[in-house]
Design a protein that fits this description.
64% of the residues lie in helices and 8% in strands. The chain is an alpha+beta fold and 643 residues long. Strand 7 (575-582), helix 23 (592-603) and strand 8 (611-613) form a beta-alpha-beta unit. Helix 7 (188-208) runs antiparallel to helix 8 (212-252), helix 15 (370-410) packs antiparallel against helix 16 and helix 16 packs antiparallel against helix 17 (433-446). 29% of the residues are buried. The mean pLDDT is 85.
Length: 643
C-alpha cells in the first residue's frame, strides 16, 4: 500500500480499479462474441506470459549467477543472486494444504463411488483420487497442485454430510455433475486449463504475501498481470459455469438441476438457523460439545421446508443481478437457462422443495454406512471444536458471574456508564439481542454521547428490522470513524433485504472511503517504530486487572505495556496497543515470533479492539515504554501488574 496516499486517494484508486475491471470484462465479452478465435488467442498469450515472466526471472538470475561466478567467484553480488534464485525457486514450490475431511473408502460406500465413477466416465472428466466427507452443507471438486505452480494436480471431491442428507438422489447427482463439469472433456482442454490456472495464480499470490523478497520481485508484475488475466478469463469462467449447469441438466435432468439450485439456496440458511445456531448456543450451559452432533439432521433435513421460510430467501436471490463480483451467474439467469423463466415456473420449484423428500441422497448412496458415517463425522466435529468449545464455555461462565454481580450491585446503587453498557452487552451475549434492546435504549437516554452504545443499539434495531437503526449507526460513524465499515455493512445488509438499489449504490461509494480509512489506520497501527507517539491507555483499574490475569499463567513473557498509539489517519482516535516483551531464548526458530503473537491473539480477551506488538527483550522499547505513565501493567519478576 502506498504510504503517501490519503484515505480519499486510496478509495478513489480502488473504485477506479473496480470500474476498470468491469470495462475490461465488457470489452472481452464483446471480443469473445465477435471473434472467438482472437479472444482465445489473447487468453492463451496472457496465460503463458505469466509463466514466461516467472521462468524468465529464474533463467535470468541463473545466467547472471553463472556469469558472476566465472568473472568474480567471490562477491556480494554472487550471494545476492544466489539468494534471489533460491527465493524464486521457493516461490514456485508452494505447499498448498489439502482440503480437510474424513477420507471415504470405496468398500465402505460402494454405491457412492459407483455414482462418482459413472459421472466422471460419462463426462470424460478428472479421476478423483480422494473422496472426503465433512460437516459442511456443500460439495466441491478440488485440484491441489503437487509441486506448487508446476506439475500434475491431485484431485479431491469433498462432500458435506448435511448436503447428502438434504438433497434427493437426482439433485445430488446434478451437484456432482456440475462440479465435474468444470473439468469435463466437453469443455475442452482450454477451458479446464483456464479454470486451473486461475486457481494456481490465486494460490501463488496468497502464499507470496508472507514472503517479502518474493513479493517484491513478483509484486509489480502481478499488479499488472492479474487484473488483466482475470478480466480476460472472466467471460470464459462465467461460460464455464453455464456449461457446468448444462452438464448437470444432461446428467440429472433439468428439473433436478433446477430444484437443486433452489434447495441449496434454502437448506444452507435453514440448517444454520434451525440446527447450528441452537447447537453452538449450548456452549453457554454445557462444558463439552453435545455427542449427538449431526444425528438430529437425519430427520430434520429430509423434512419439508415451509414456503414462508424459503420464499423470502429465493426472492432475495432472484432480485440479485449478474455482476462482476462473481463469475457465477445470478440465480434467475441460471434457472432461465434451464427453462424456468416465469414466476409461476419458479413458484412450482419452491413448492416442490417445500415437500418432504421420499428418499435422500444419503439413504440412496450411503444407506449401509449412514450410521457409521454419522458417528465418524460427529467424532471429527467434536475433536475439531472441543478445545474452542471448552474455552468458550468458560468464557460464558465468567460472563454469567459478571452479569450476576452487576445485577446485585444495581439493586443497591446506580451503575457507572461503563458498567451500565457492559450489563446491556452481557445481556445480549448471554440471552439475546432482542432482550438487550430496552437496556441499550435506557443506557443511551442516560448517556446520549456513548458512541459504542449508539452503534450497538442501531445494529440491534436493524437486526429486528427497525429502520430507526440507520440513524443511530450514521451518528456513530460520524462521531467515531472506527465504526464506519461495520456500520455501513449492517446498513447494507438491511437495505439489501429491502432491495433498495439507490441506497445500496450510495453505500458502495461510502464503503470505499471507510475501508480505505480503516486499512490505512491498520497499516499505521501495525508498523511499530521507536518514534511512535503513545498516550495513556485510559482503562479502568478493574479492566487492567482482568487483562493482567490472563498473563500470570504464562512463562514466556517478560513485561507487558498498555498504551494508546497515535494514528495519523485517525488523529482523534488513538488505538489501544499492547506491547508484550517476549523472553529471550538461546535458540529461536524462524516464525516463532509470529506463532507467539497468534497464540496471544487467540487467547487474549480485551475490552476493545487493539493492536499487539511482541518484540524479544528490547532495551530500547523497554526504555521508551517506561517513559509512558502507568503503561507497565505486568512484570514477570514480581508476577503482578501495576496500573
Amino acid at each position: 500500500m502506498d504510504k503517501a496516499l490519503t484515505a480519499s486517494q486510496l478509495a478513489e484508486r480502488r473504485k477506479k480499479a473496480d470500474e476498470d475491471f468491469g470495462k475490461r470484462v465488457v470489452r472481452q465479452a464483446g471480443l469473445a462474441k465477435t471473434n472467438p478465435s482472437l479472444y482465445r488467442l489473447k487468453v492463451r498469450f496472457l496465460g503463458f506470459s505469466g509463466y514466461a515472466f516467472i521462468f524468465g526471472c529464474l533463467l535470468l538470475t541463473a545466467g547472471l549467477f553463472i556469469a558472476v561466478l566465472l568473472l568474480r567467484p567471490v562477491s556480494q553480488l554472487l550471494l545476492l543472486l544466489g539468494f534471489i534464485f533460491v527465493t524464486i525457486l521457493r516461490s514456485l514450490w508452494i505447499k498448498i494444504s489439502p482440503p480437510e475431511g474424513i477420507e471415504l473408502d470405496r468398500s465402505q460406500v460402494p454405491e457412492l463411488f459407483q455414482e462418482i465413477d459413472k459421472i466422471s466416465c460419462d463426462l470424460k472428466s478428472i479421476r478423483i483420487e480422494k473422496v472426503l466427507i465433512d460437516d459442511e452443507t456443500n460439495a466441491q471438486a478440488s485440484q491441489i497442485p503437487r509441486f506448487g505452480l508446476i506439475g500434475p494436480a491431485k484431485n479431491y471431491l469433498i462432500i458435506g454430510l448435511p448436503l447428502l442428507l438434504s438433497l434427493s438422489p437426482d439433485e445430488f447427482r446434478s451437484v456432482l455433475a456440475h462440479e465435474f463439469g468444470h473439468f469435463s472433456g466437453q469443455h475442452g482442454k482450454f477451458g479446464s486449463w483456464v479454470y486451473r490456472i486461475n486457481e494456481t495464480w490465486d494460490n501463488l499470490r496468497f502464499n507470496l504475501g508472507s514472503r517479502k523478497l518474493a513479493h517484491a520481485i513478483f509484486g509489480v508484475f502481478f499488479d499488472w498481470f492479474q487484473p488483466r488475466f482475470s478480466a480476460a478469463t472472466f467471460v470464459l469462467r462465467r461460460e464455464n459455469e453455464h456449461e457446468a449447469d448444462s452438464v448437470a441438466c444432461q446428467i440429472a435432468g433439468k428439473r433436478a438441476a433446477a430444484t437443486a439450485l433452489v434447495r441449496i439456496r434454502i437448506v444452507g440458511p435453514l440448517i444454520d438457523q434451525k440446527f447450528w445456531v441452537p447447537y453452538y448456543a449450548r456452549v453457554k450451559s454445557e462444558p463439552t460439545p453435545p455427542e449427538e452432533g449431526l444425528n438430529d439432521l437425519v430427520s430434520f433435513s429430509s423434512g419439508g421446508i415451509s414456503p414462508d421460510f424459503s420464499r423470502p430467501l429465493i426472492e432475495k436471490a432472484l432480485a440479485r443481478k449478474t455482476d462482476y463480483s462473481d463469475t457465477h451467474p445470478c440465480l434467475r439467469e441460471r434457472l432461465a437457462e434451464m427453462g424456468y423463466r416465469s414466476d409461476d415456473e419458479i413458484e412450482s420449484l419452491i413448492l416442490e422443495v417445500s415437500r418432504p423428500l421420499s428418499e435422500t441422497a444419503a439413504v440412496r448412496f450411503t444407506s449401509r454406512q449412514l450410521d457409521a458415517l454419522l458417528k465418524r463425522v460427529n467424532r471429527n466435529l467434536i475433536t475439531r471444536i472441543s478445545g474452542k468449545w471448552k474455552r468458550n464455555h468458560q468464557y460464558y461462565q465468567d460472563l454469567t458471574v459478571e452479569l450476576n454481580e452487576l445485577d446485585r450491585r444495581l439493586d443497591t446503587m446506580p451503575l457507572s456508564q461503563k458498567e451500565s453498557l457492559r450489563r446491556a452487552v452481557l445481556i445480549s451475549e448471554l440471552r439475546s439481542d432482542t432482550e438487550s434492546i430496552p437496556h441499550l435504549k435506557s443506557h443511551l437516554q442516560k448517556f446520549p454521547d456513548d458512541v459504542e452504545c449508539m452503534f450497538l443499539y442501531g445494529q440491534s434495531l436493524l437486526d429486528s428490522e427497525d429502520p430507526e437503526g440507520v440513524g443511530y449507526l450514521r451518528k456513530a460513524m460520524k462521531l467515531d470513524p472506527r465504526y464506519s465499515v461495520r456500520a455501513i455493512d449492517a446498513i447494507g445488509t438491511f437495505e439489501s433485504k429491502r432491495q433498495n438499489e439507490g441506497a445500496l449504490s450510495t453505500l458502495r461509494d461510502e464503503m470505499y472511503q471507510a475501508q480505505a480509512t480503516s486499512d490505512l489506520s491498520r497499516q499505521e497501527a501495525r508498523q511499530f517504530r521507536l518514534t511512535d507517539v503513545f498516550y495513556p491507555h485510559g482503562l479502568d483499574t478493574s479492566e487492567v486487572r482482568e487483562i493482567v490475569k490472563q498473563f500470570e499463567t504464562r512463562d514466556d513473557i517478560k513485561r507487558v505495556y498498555l498504551a494508546r498509539k497515535y494514528l495519523p489517519s485517525m488523529p482523534h482516535k488513538p488505538r489501544l496497543t499492547l506491547i508484550c516483551i517476549r523472553k529471550k531464548k538461546s535458540f529461536e526458530r524462524k516464525g516463532s515470533g509470529q506463532a507467539f503473537a497468534s497464540n496471544v491473539l487467540s487467547q487474549l480477551r480485551m475490552p476493545e479492539e487493539y493492536m499487539l506488538y511482541t518484540p524479544v527483550e528490547d532495551r530500547k522499547w523497554i526504555r521508551k515504554m517506561e517513559n509512558q505513565p502507568k503503561s507497565l501493567i505486568y512484570d514477570s519478576k514480581v508476577n503482578k501488574g501495576r496500573s
